């Protein structure tokens, strides 16, 4: 076969092969993990990297991890020289992580006696508790030191042997050590799957050929994105959106973005200059989050099956000034940056993009993951528990089609915990789970409705809320109405109801009820135009 | 007499045994009432009294795919009416802002709540209220529905409330699908979805099967009708009519059983079934040394989760009609978009986009004159013109075509990896059994890519599903979520379930054996592995976990999530007459030669007519064996032998 024929064909085969490795790693992680957050809600990502820490395949897992995983691998490589059999662990947002509950494992893969890894397999999972002042490690904090244990890049395994010192130190600092240990074992298993499979690929093609294919795959991804950017109008498109506040003060937090499209070059520059300074509360985003949001937006312009490799971002520049809400520095707390700021950054990006390509962009979706963490002691077993879950809301209306009701959008795609799984695992009784009718924005195309979730605690517990979109509603586009803002209530056993702020922590009694109502999506087009 | 009748798109296949040989009859299908073709087939083979008719039906499959089921009311615990629509609250495509909303089989106004509650421990926290039930019966009575699905929270842990609701609704005279009977397992959405699917299919399937039972019984004294289930087991039609969700993939299950049974007779009982059709490829692994048929309890049919047991068949969007194109980055992509039957491949005369079938034709692998017995003429010239236009930077049409096949075979190999390697099986231990129009065309090349040493193209490839239905065991599955530590005694639960099984079988005049198994997991995990119940079950679980996921821990606590009982009444032993092998080279079947492209160039290749091959004939590739519904492509170096059952057994050279 001639070279001209070989490349598009071999490339297709290679792309399919490495993508299936990442998917297989994810399947292994899901099926063997312990905490409901990972196994039922699938809050994890698995990816493969080349020797230069460039992502070559990523499973279709969590978009918020898209751009952040490569930075974890880079942080590991910068911090230490890994050897065969080592596995690095980290969660430090200021050294390759995003927020503390997301623990990343990086396994180097060596060939032919080389001291330099030819590939890396990485798995990241959201652990339900990593210590700190609040059960679930997502509560209101004002310094990262309060948010849980900070793990810089260190070796969890050395030459194939578990580093018990590190593991004991880690487990001594979390509320549910057995669960953590089980989940870490599953993450190790997932990395091993990646290692095994890439070794098969190298055995088949030879390392030199695989490296060549990696270069081709990255170049191909770059061409794909450039072709898309060439379709954009030239110019600068600006927008802003706001977070309600940081939970410490009521000061709105501005996310400002400008996107410059250069269709002639097939390039884009995204600049967040003008965004608010970092805040005291925990909604600060570190740079990898901001980068992920940009990656996600651009990735959505491509067809659904385009490969999520480092090459896609070669023609894109992202600027986020240091010390701001979109690129926070130590010791800012960041638990909510991953889940809240990330969604608002996406909202601002889409609003700017809609100015460039109005027919290709949906109105704002619900825009808050409505994070809920609950901790206490299960009276059925006497054992402590921590529970974490996000609740979906309404999808923004699309030009030509209504938004979807009660579905996760943009930076997350976690599943709900089945009620029957939840009540086996925790001392809760769900009382209501349904659509929040009428919460979607009006318009020619209607925004999706949010959700209502109401549950009773069967034991005294600490409850932490981390929600947004209470003041600034999900925006409509092209004349469509805004989605309804979110709310939450605490209803005591004797029926007294208290409205809860978006970000708070409270101690509730047995038989108290928490009711969450999540925002709807914005509408698209003026309502009167509906035929 | 026992006869299997399988409904297909064009033909309805009838297969029975006579003097140790299969007899096949094809009658035209009657899509408006598929039962007419069944009765017609029975007439033509002159069936007599006491005939046992085993049926593979597409009525349920089609109702599901075309969304032409009944208008269903869904009854659940009050406050949770929307859960059937919310599903798991995740979107199906991560990066598609314009994806359509997931479809719910129950309209919003037909979701009803009952004030009641059972907890995880099976205690009734709140009983049902008689007055409220009366109101519910009235409301559903006025809603003009065809069927009712009932699934209350934790009904599998205690069915008291659900039974009361079902009892009250009985007076409406509608088909009722009740969750603790159909799928007494935890996870409310998946259970509810299964029960709703059952209700959705019940009116159509119920009427169809009831009619057909009547037709068969009127025509033949003491006749009985049985139906193939998606699990690969047969059940009496009366039970199938009540639980149609169990038969939604009746036809494909027949194909897998047929492939497995014929391969086993040929001496190969560890198989990967490879069924390639026009738009998709179904693959399935059966390993006699690892429990035989592998059953999944988390299938998805046409976007709807189905939790009742089904053969673990994995589908890839790769078929003869899959379209090839270059994307914006210059990479060759093949599928999942398919040219379908309209416009179809270029060579059929209408399509303008290259497909896998066009690529096979370009490389000389298909007969222009004999495709589907000559009923479709393939236009080679038209194909060459359009392929030349579409080949992009690739130098020749042949290189382009070879590339299309490599890419599509990578997708198919990926599907096979999911069911083999990902689940701890080594493809080198298996035989690839190829069927469907495209299976034999791609089997040898795919086998080489996966290091599978052997390909078997079964006898009767055009009626394999009916063969499977004829040879399948009668089977019914029962399950219940218990969520107990592994040390707990399960004897009473098993006894209770077996009692139900024995009685149901007895009511149908059957006797069967009960097989016990349990779904185990490490305490706290979210997924389970099924192992046979018994003293060795813990060890078996650790072993399986190690094999499947690469680690196991004998110190971790185990819990039993579900207990399962499978009632089996084995089909009578099938001992076909092996024909004597006569050493031959197949030259009597040689119908010519033509150039076929292998390994970067054309080779003059012998073409054989399969019907004229005799047991014992042996020859090496390059060769093509042509038959009515397919063509077996034998690459250079692979050796084909016709066995005593007229299967083609191919040793794939490494």
Key phrases:
heterodimer; A: alpha+beta; seven-stranded antiparallel sheet; 20 strands; 28% helix; globular; B: alpha+beta; nine-stranded mixed sheet; six-stranded mixed sheet; 16 helices; 35 strands; 30% helix
Describe the fold and architecture.
The complex is a heterodimer of chains A (531) and B (654). Helices cover 28% and strands 23% of the residues of chain A. With 531 residues, chain A is of the alpha+beta class. In chain A, the strands form 4 sheets. In chain A, strands 2-1-5-4-3-6-7 form a 7-stranded antiparallel sheet, with helices on both faces. Chain B has 654 residues and is an alpha+beta fold. In chain B, a hairpin with a 4-residue loop joins strand 13 (270-276) and strand 14. Chain B is globular. Chain B starts with a strand and ends with a strand.
Give the helices and strands, then pairings:
The complex is a heterodimer of chains A (531) and B (654).
Chain A (H helix, E strand, L loop, with lengths): L2 H30 L3 H4 L4 E7 L4 E4 L9 H12 L7 E4 L11 E8 L9 E8 L27 E5 L2 E2 L1 H8 L5 H29 L1 H23 L5 E9 L9 E10 L4 E5 L15 H15 L14 E4 L15 H22 L14 E7 L6 E6 L29 H7 L2 E9 L13 E8 L3 E6 L20 E5 L5 E3 L3 E6 L4 E5 L14
Parallel strand pairs in A: 10-11
Antiparallel strand pairs in A: 1-2, 1-5, 3-4, 3-6, 4-5, 6-7, 8-9, 9-10, 12-13, 12-16, 14-15, 15-20, 16-19, 17-18, 17-20
Helix pairs in contact in A: 1-5, 1-6, 5-6, 7-8
Chain B lengths: L1 E6 L3 E8 L2 E8 L5 H11 L7 E5 L2 H7 L6 E6 L5 H4 L24 E4 L2 E2 L5 E3 L3 H13 L4 E4 L9 H10 L6 E3 H4 L5 H32 L4 E5 L5 E3 H6 L7 H16 L4 E7 L4 E7 L4 E2 L1 E2 L2 E3 L2 E3 L3 E2 L2 E3 L5 E5 L5 E7 L17 H7 L17 H11 L6 H23 L11 E5 L3 H11 L4 E4 L6 H8 L2 E12 L5 H17 L5 E10 L6 E4 L4 H13 L8 E12 L20 E9 L2 E9 L8 E3 L2 E4 L4 E4 L4 E4 L5 E4 L3
Parallel strand pairs in B: 1-4, 4-11, 5-6, 5-9, 9-10, 13-23, 23-24, 30-32
Antiparallel strand pairs in B: 1-2, 2-3, 7-8, 11-12, 13-14, 14-15, 14-20, 16-19, 17-18, 21-22, 24-35, 25-28, 26-27, 26-28, 29-30, 31-34, 32-33, 34-35
Helix pairs in contact in B: 2-7, 9-14, 10-11, 10-12, 12-13
């Amino acid at each position: 076969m001639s070279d001209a024929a070989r490349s598009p064909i071999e490339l297709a085969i290679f792309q399919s092969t490495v993508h299936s490795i990442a998917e297989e790693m994810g399947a292994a992680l899901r099926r063997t993990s312990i905490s409901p957050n990972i196994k039922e809600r699938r809050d994890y990502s698995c990816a493969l990297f080349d020797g230069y820490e460039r992502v070559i395949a990523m499973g279709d897992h969590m978009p918020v991890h898209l751009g952040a995983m490569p930075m974890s691998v880079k942080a590991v490589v910068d911090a230490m020289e890994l050897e065969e059999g080592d596995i690095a662990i980290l969660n430090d947002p200021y050294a390759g992580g995003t927020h503390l509950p997301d623990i990343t494992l990086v396994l180097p893969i060596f060939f032919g006696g080389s001291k330099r890894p030819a590939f890396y397999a990485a798995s990241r999972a959201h652990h339900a508790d990593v210590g700190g002042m609040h059960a679930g490690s997502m509560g209101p904090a004002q310094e990262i030191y309060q948010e849980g244990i900070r793990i810089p890049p260190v070796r969890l395994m050395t030459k194939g042997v578990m580093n018990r010192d590190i593991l004991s130190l880690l487990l001594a600092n979390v509320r549910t050590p057995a669960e953590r240990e089980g989940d870490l074992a599953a993450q190790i298993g997932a990395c091993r799957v990646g290692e095994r499979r890439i070794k098969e690929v190298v055995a088949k093609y030879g390392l030199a050929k695989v490296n060549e294919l990696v270069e081709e795959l990255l170049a191909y991804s770059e061409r794909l994105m450039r072709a898309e950017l060439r379709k954009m109008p030239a110019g600068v498109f600006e927008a802003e959106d706001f977070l309600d506040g940081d939970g410490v003060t009521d000061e709105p937090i501005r996310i400002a973005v400008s996107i410059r499209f250069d269709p002639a070059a097939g390039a884009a520059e995204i600049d967040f200059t003008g965004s608010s300074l970092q805040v005291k509360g925990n909604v600060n985003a570190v740079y990898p989050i901001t980068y992920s949001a940009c990656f996600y937006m651009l990735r959505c312009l491509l067809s659904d099956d385009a490969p999520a490799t480092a090459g896609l971002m070669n023609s894109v520049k992202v600027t986020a000034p240091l010390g701001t809400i979109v690129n926070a520095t130590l010791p800012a707390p960041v638990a909510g940056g991953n889940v809240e700021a990330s969604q608002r950054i996406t909202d601002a990006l889409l609003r700017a993009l809609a100015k460039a390509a109005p027919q290709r962009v949906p109105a704002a979706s619900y825009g808050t993951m409505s994070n809920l963490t609950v901790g206490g002691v299960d009276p059925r077993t006497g054992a402590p528990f921590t529970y974490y879950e996000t609740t979906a809301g309404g999808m923004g209306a699309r030009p030509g089609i209504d938004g979807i009701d009660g579905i996760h959008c943009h930076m997350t795609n976690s599943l709900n915990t089945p009620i029957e799984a939840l009540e086996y695992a925790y001392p809760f009784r769900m009382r209501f789970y349904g659509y929040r009718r009428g919460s979607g924005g009006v318009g020619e195309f209607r925004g999706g409705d949010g959700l209502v979730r109401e549950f009773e605690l069967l034991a005294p517990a600490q409850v932490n809320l981390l929600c947004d979109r209470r003041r600034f509603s999900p925006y409509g586009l092209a004349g469509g109405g805004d989605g309804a803002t979110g709310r939450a209530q605490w209803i005591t056993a004797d029926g007294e109801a208290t409205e809860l702020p978006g970000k708070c922590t409270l101690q509730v009694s047995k038989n108290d009820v928490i009711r969450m109502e999540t925002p709807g999506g914005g509408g698209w087009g003026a309502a009167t135009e509906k035929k | 007499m026992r006869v299997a009748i399988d409904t297909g798109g064009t033909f309805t296949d009838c297969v029975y045994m006579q003097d140790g040989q299969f007899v096949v009859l094809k009658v035209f299908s009657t899509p408006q009432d598929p039962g007419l073709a069944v009765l017609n087939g029975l007439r033509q083979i002159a069936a007599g009294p006491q005939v046992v008719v085993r049926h593979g039906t597409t009525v349920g499959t089609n109702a599901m795919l075309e969304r032409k089921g009944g208008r269903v009311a869904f009854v659940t615990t009050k406050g949770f009416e929307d859960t059937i629509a919310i599903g798991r609250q995740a979107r199906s495509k991560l990066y598609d802002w314009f994806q359509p909303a997931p479809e719910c089989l129950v309209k919003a106004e037909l979701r009803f709540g009952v004030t009641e509650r059972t907890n995880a421990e099976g205690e009734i926290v709140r009983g049902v209220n008689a007055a409220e039930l009366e109101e519910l019966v009235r409301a559903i009575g006025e809603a003009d529905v065809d069927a009712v699905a009932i699934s209350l929270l934790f009904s599998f842990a205690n069915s008291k409330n659900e039974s009361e609701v079902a009892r009250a609704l009985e007076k409406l005279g509608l088909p009722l699908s009740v969750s603790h009977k159909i799928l007494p397992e935890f996870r409310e959405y998946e259970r509810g979805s299964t029960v709703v699917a059952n209700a959705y299919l019940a009116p159509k399937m119920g009427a169809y099967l009831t009619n057909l039972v009547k037709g068969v019984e009127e025509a033949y004294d003491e006749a009985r009708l049985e139906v193939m289930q998606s699990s690969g087991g047969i059940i009496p039609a009366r039970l199938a009519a009540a639980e149609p969700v169990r038969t939604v993939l009746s036809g494909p299950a027949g194909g897998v059983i047929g492939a497995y049974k014929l391969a086993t007779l040929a001496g190969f009982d560890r198989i990967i079934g490879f069924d390639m059709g026009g738009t998709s490829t179904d693959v399935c692994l059966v390993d006699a040394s690892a429990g035989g048929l592998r059953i999944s309890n988390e299938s998805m049919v046409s976007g709807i989760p189905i939790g009742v047991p089904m053969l673990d068949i994995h589908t890839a969007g790769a078929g003869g009609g899959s379209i090839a194109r270059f994307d914006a980055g210059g990479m060759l992509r093949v599928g999942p978009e398919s040219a379908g039957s309209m416009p179809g491949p270029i060579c059929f005369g209408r399509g303008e986009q290259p497909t896998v079938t066009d690529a096979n034709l370009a490389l000389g692998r298909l007969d222009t004159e004999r495709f589907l017995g000559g009923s479709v003429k393939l236009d080679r010239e038209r194909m060459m013109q359009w392929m030349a236009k579409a080949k992009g930077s690739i130098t020749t049409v042949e290189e382009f075509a070879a590339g299309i096949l490599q890419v599509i075979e990578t997708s198919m190999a990926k599907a096979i990896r999911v069911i083999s390697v990902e689940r701890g099986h080594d493809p080198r231990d298996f035989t690839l059994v190829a069927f469907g129009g495209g299976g034999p065309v791609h089997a040898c090349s795919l086998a080489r890519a996966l290091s599978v040493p052997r390909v078997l193209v079964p006898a009767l490839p055009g009626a394999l599903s009916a063969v499977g239905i004829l040879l399948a065991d009668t089977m019914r599955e029962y399950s219940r979520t218990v969520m107990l530590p592994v040390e707990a005694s399960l004897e009473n639960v098993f006894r209770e379930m077996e009692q139900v099984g024995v009685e149901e079988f007895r009511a149908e005049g059957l006797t069967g054996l009960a097989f016990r198994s349990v779904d185990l997991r490490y305490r706290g995990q979210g997924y389970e592995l099924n192992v046979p119940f018994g003293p060795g079950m813990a060890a078996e679980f650790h072993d399986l976990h190690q094999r499947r996921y690469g680690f196991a821990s004998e110190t971790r606590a185990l819990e039993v999530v579900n207990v399962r009982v499978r009632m089996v009444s084995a089909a009578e032993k099938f001992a076909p007459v092996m024909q004597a092998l006569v050493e031959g080279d197949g030259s009597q079947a040689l119908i010519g030669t033509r150039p076929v492209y292998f390994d970067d160039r054309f080779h003059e290749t012998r073409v054989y007519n399969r019907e004229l091959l005799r047991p014992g004939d042996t020859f090496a590739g390059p060769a093509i064996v042509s038959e009515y519904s397919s063509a077996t492509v034998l690459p250079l170096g692979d050796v084909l032998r016709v066995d005593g059952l007229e299967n083609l057994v191919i040793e794939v050279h490494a």
